[in-house]
Amino acid sequence: MQITNIETIEVRIPYTAGSASQTSAWGGKEWQTADALLVKVSTDAGITGWGEAFGYNVIPATRVAINELIAPICIGADAQDIDSLMLDLYRKLHIFGRGGPVIYALSSLDIALWDIAGKASGQPLHQMLAGKSRDQVSAYASLVRYVEPDQVAANVTRACELGFRAIKLHEITVPAVAAARQAAGPDVAIMLDVNCPWTRDEAIDMAKQLQQFDLAWLEEPVWPPEDHTSLAIIRKQGGIPVAAGENAATLQQYRHLFEAGALDIVQPSPAKSGGVSGLRDVFALADEFGVRVVPHSFYEGPGLLSAIHCCAALASDPLVEWRFFDCEARLYGDDFVPVDGKFVVPNGPGLGLDPDQDVIERYQAT
Ligand SMILES: [Mg+2]
């Protein structure tokens, strides 16, 4: 089965996050829309697969990587020999970067190829990964940064009322975390993602102040993200489990994180770190090192679906990140959302769901 076409589609779906938020905490842009880059791979057998690359401000760069670097190598290649094709692409393109837009682009292709493979064999992705079969996986609500403690509390309450038993904050102050714990009560898991703001000493100091809130993990506490030595020291001295990994991109980088003893929880991202193959390999390596895998999946398209399938098949204690946005429309329809903090694992072939064509047409960026 040969690849005949690769198409990139950007969609921008308006959303709110419950109340005034500080989304400018990431990427320096006050987002009004959830911007996603979808990739549609067609074959001469008439089967099409869908992938997703990390979105937002980086979309134009990733698009060029797909259209001008990757597609010319892929047209005519065998869509079903995923490992060989991906290895060939990684080798040919390594001089253009082992992280960032080129790897986001390769990640989206990998997801689409797994979707095609599943459709061709009639099996859902979780079954192809040959793991445990689960009907449902737990989801956690991943909140934006609200800054104001009363707004943090209001949105934590909203997530609890929707049935989430685990909630992640993106706050960076002690009062904001205190407000979340008070609103959630003692029985809901709270995680804190700070997005790499601190030096090693600042992170240890903050972790000690935050210990009282019984956090399930502290995510990316140190700048720069690849300072694995500091992560290991913060993990030892801060008294809170440490999570990271969405900004690693290759299996070697994950190996370095594990060998440094940097992590309790590793967070590979399907649309940033090698797609389904990337997650499959990180799950296997993490198992050797006794590290729990909870993927980064701040997506609503194939990036999210691949995290759900990989967790359903490969995780002993599955937990999937769910972006806590109120979107004007959803790529898989309004019904594909977590209910009582759980996703139903799609059982159709491949990813199990294709994006809604009407939603794509309505929100496609020109
Ligand atoms: Mg994060």
Provide the fold topology:
Elements: E1 3-16, E2 33-43, E3 48-53, H1 59-74, H2 82-93, H3 101-121, H4 125-128, E4 136-142, H5 149-161, E5 166-169, H6 174-184, E6 189-193, H7 200-210, E7 217-219, H8 228-238, E8 242-244, H9 251-259, E9 265-266, H10 275-289, E10 292-293, H11 302-314, E11 319-323, E12 326-327, E13 342-344, H12 357-363
Parallel strand pairs: 4-5, 4-11, 5-6, 6-7, 7-8, 8-9, 9-10
Antiparallel strand pairs: 1-2, 1-12, 2-3, 4-13
Helix pairs in contact: 1-3, 2-3, 3-10, 5-6, 7-8, 9-10, 10-11
Kindly list the characteristics that best describe this protein.
globular; alpha/beta; 2 domains; binds magnesium ion; 12 helices; Enolase-like, domain 1
How many helices? The count is 12
How large is the radius of gyration? 20 Å
Here the CATH topology of the largest domain equals: TIM Barrel
Shape, per Cα inertia axes: globular
Structural class: alpha/beta
The total strand number stands at 13
What is the residue-mean pLDDT, rounded to a whole number?
A: 94
**End-to-end distance:** 31 Å
Could you characterize the architecture of this molecule?
By secondary structure, the protein is of the alpha/beta class. The protein folds into 2 domains: 3-122, 2-Layer Sandwich (Enolase-like, domain 1); 127-356, Alpha-Beta Barrel (TIM Barrel). 39% of the residues lie in helices and 18% in strands. It is built from 12 helices and 13 strands. The strands form 2 sheets. Strands 4, 5, 6, 7, 8, 9, 10, 11 and 13 form a 9-stranded mixed β-sheet that branches. Helix 5 runs parallel beside helix 6. Bound molecules: magnesium ion (MG). Magnesium ion is lined by residues 193, 219-220, 246, 296.
